[in-house]
Design goal:
single chain, 667 residues, alpha/beta, TIM Barrel, Immunoglobulin-like, 10-stranded mixed β-sheet, 4-stranded antiparallel β-sheet, 19 helices, 30% helix, globular, disordered N terminus, lipid degradation, cytoplasm, PLipase_C_Pinositol-sp_Y
Length: 667
């Protein structure tokens, strides 16, 4: 009895001491803020203007958008400090209140109080409970808890007493390691010694174009941008240029021309900054033999031993690891220009439309345009019946290590080739095969790379949705990187995995005809009857959209500073997994809107599924796009997680976040 009483008193006393320490620490933190204010008050008048406050916030490690800080600054300036300054200023107490309002997030404090049992601080046991129950980290230990305190707790006395304050908890939850994306997937973790045909490969179409396919500028910078994003296959349309120097542009159009040599030098400088794995140059070669010799000379001189070449039959398909820091040059061994239609505008040939042919490849992209389309903007057309054949120069042939293979039939394409080869399929052709013969299409990808590209009719540089191609195993799904939107958002989500190096290992069922068969129904709907997969491979997802933080105002918006945000969530994968959800609209709150809305859904093929979040601003006309985030389901960390937002050009918003809670369990 006495011992039990002693234990109880000791526990109560320990809790009292913890609370005393935390109270003292909280007061100390206020003192730190006040002292920082005094230090920033250079003229000693007891006031800070807005620009001084921004500098002070930076010194306190508080990241805030300027427009939101301005609104809260004006609200905190209650006294208006008449006579002190011509501009608005805050005194010391106003600044403390301003800072508290700025950093206060009710939804985080509620979670903090829940897992701290209302104490107002977290000890080691509380943090351990949060990691295991809140964040679903079943193997969490006390050393991890102490590491969290050491890394994120701002107040010294709390840190010495192994306590975590609400400010430390907030810093911990918004840290990169606690975001939705699994930090272990930020580095290469997949097996890179499998054949190249076993990977999805980030790929660009007509990489040189900055805008549309007919009149826009060609820019060297577009190659740099794509390579920085992890793109591993870029396209070069090569033509004879003046003074014996080959150029790159979209042939028979008004797109501007850039020097082949400038592009090669840019590729050499940036090819392996984002990824050490091979870069393929997909060359559409329209050059004379003389200028082909110049192309070979330039590439040999600039790339040197980075060029991967093989003059013997391959025993096996090379792997990404085999080809680290190597440049692969891909083109046709010989080239035929087919008869076709040429579009003229103002006396200049604008667009080549070759007639439909069984041998459609990346060199014949215009073949995807319907034959009955004989004009653009009412311009005249002229039929050309000549067939021009161009041979590959010996020098260029010597450094070509990947062959573009003309497509005949799926059955023929599925046969192994002694040469490292790729079959190119237009958007319309691959979609037709998906509808009529998905099994055979997938079978081709077991032995060959399949490259797909946008229809020639997409002269505005729009994109097709890549998911159906990935679902059927196509590896090199080329997109117009200059055009933002759903397609590129999915591409960003797919290739953020595996360290963002541009190579993502395909799931096993895409590499086996038997496993692929059991996932098929008409139009690739999911088979639930004779399913040959464990039910454990399916997933139940429960997602709660809790809140947002510092959403930006839409660019070129005609509305005022305050937005009316809502969040759309979409699931992308096999047809049966496609789903959409959306939250309600929060009026007049872009700084910290709160929803607390929960969505539950089943994912039947989680290996291919992507989860996409889109934030929009409700508008009487068309809702304005704010930002997005796309992530593979397999890369998600469970629990309370923040996720960043990207703009339509895939640039990250530094401070904007969505806060969610997510659990993923076996179905």
């Amino acid at each position: 009895m006495l011992f039990a009483w002693y234990i109880n008193v000791t526990a109560v006393f320990a809790g009292f001491v913890d609370r005393l320490i935390f109270l003292f620490a909280s007061l100390t933190w206020i003192r730190i803020v006040r002292e920082a204010f005094n230090k920033a008050d250079l003229n000693g008048d007891g006031h800070l203007d807005f620009e001084e406050v921004l500098k002070l916030l930076k010194s306190l490690n508080t990241d805030i958008k300027k427009k939101y800080a301005r609104v809260m600054f004006d609200e905190a300036d209650k006294n208006k400090n008449v006579g002190v300054s011509k501009t608005s200023v805050l005194d010391r107490e106003e600044f403390v209140e301003f800072y508290n309002r700025l950093t206060k997030r009710v939804e985080l404090e509620d979670i903090f109080l829940k897992f701290s049992n209302g104490k107002g601080y977290m000890n080691i046991r509380d943090i351990l409970g949060f990691l295991r129950d809140g964040q679903k980290i079943v193997d969490a230990n006390e050393d991890q808890c102490r590491n969290i305190i050491d890394q994120f707790e701002p107040e010294g006395r709390c840190k010495k007493s192994d306590l975590l304050s609400v400010d430390g908890f907030r810093q911990f939850l918004i840290s990169e390691r606690e975001q939705l994306f699994n930090p272990s997937h930020r580095v290469v973790y997949q097996d890179m010694t499998r054949p190249m045909t076993h990977y999805f490969i980030a790929s660009s179409h007509n990489t040189y174009l900055a805008e549309d396919q007919l009149r826009g500028p060609s820019q060297v910078e577009m190659y740099i941008s794509a390579l920085k994003k992890g793109c591993r296959c870029v396209e070069l349309d090569c033509w004879d240029g003046p003074d014996g120097q080959p150029v790159i542009y979209h042939g028979y159009t008004f797109t501007s021309k850039i020097l082949f040599e400038d592009v090669i030098r840019a590729i050499n400088n940036y090819a392996f900054q984002a990824s050490p794995y091979p870069v393929t140059l997909s060359i559409e070669n329209h050059c004379s033999v003389e200028q082909q010799e110049r192309m070979a000379q330039i590439m040999t001189s600039v790339f040197g031993d980075k060029i991967w070449s093989t003059q013997t039959d391959l025993i096996r398909t090379p792997t990404p690891e085999d080809l680290r820091n190597k440049i692969i040059i891909k083109q046709k061994v010989d080239k035929v220009f087919h008869k076709g239609i040429f579009i003229f505008a103002q006396g200049k040939r604008l667009l080549s439309i070759t007639e439909r042919d069984a041998d459609v490849s990346d060199e014949d992209e215009a073949a995807d345009i319907p034959n009955n389309e004989t004009s653009v903007n009412n311009n005249k057309t002229k039929r050309n019946s000549k067939i021009q054949k161009i041979k590959l120069s010996p020098a260029l042939s010597k450094i070509t290590s990947m062959k573009s293979v003309g497509f005949k039939t799926l059955e023929q394409s599925a046969q192994p080739d002694s040469f490292f080869s790729v079959v190119s399929l237009s958007e319309s052709k691959v979609e037709r095969f998906i509808q009529t013969n998905p099994l055979e299409l997938n079978k081709v990808t077991h032995n060959r790379l399949i490259r797909t590209y946008p229809a020639g009719s997409r002269t505005d540089s729009s994109n097709y949705i890549p998911m159906p191609m990935w679902v059927h195993g196509c590896q090199v799904v080329a997109l117009n990187y200059q055009t933002g939107g759903k397609a590129m958002q999915l591409n960003q989500g797919r290739f953020m995995d595996n360290g963002g190096v541009g190579y993502v290992l395909k799931p096993p069922f895409l590499l086996s005809g038997n496993l692929f068969t059991v996932l098929l129904e008409e139009r690739f709907k999911f088979v639930t009857g004779n399913l040959n997969r464990s039910a454990n491979s399916m997933r139940n997802v429960k997602l709660t959209i809790i809140s947002g933080f510092q959403f930006p105002k839409p660019k070129n918006s005609q509305k005022g500073e305050v937005i009316d945000p809502f969040v759309k969530v979409s699931v992308h994968g096999v047809v049966a997994d496609e789903a959409k959800f959306r939250t309600k609209v929060i009026q007049n709150n872009g700084f910290n809107p709160r929803w607390y809305e929960t969505f539950s859904f089943k994912v039947k093929v989680p290996e291919l599924a992507l989860l996409r979040f889109t934030v929009k601003d409700q508008d009487p006309g068309k809702d304005d796009f704010i930002g997005y985030y796309c992530i593979p389901l397999s890369s998600i960390q469970e629990g309370y997680r923040h996720l960043p937002l990207y703009d339509k050009h895939d640039n990250i918003y530094r401070q904007s976040l969505i806060f969610i809670h997510i659990t993923i369990s076996s179905a």
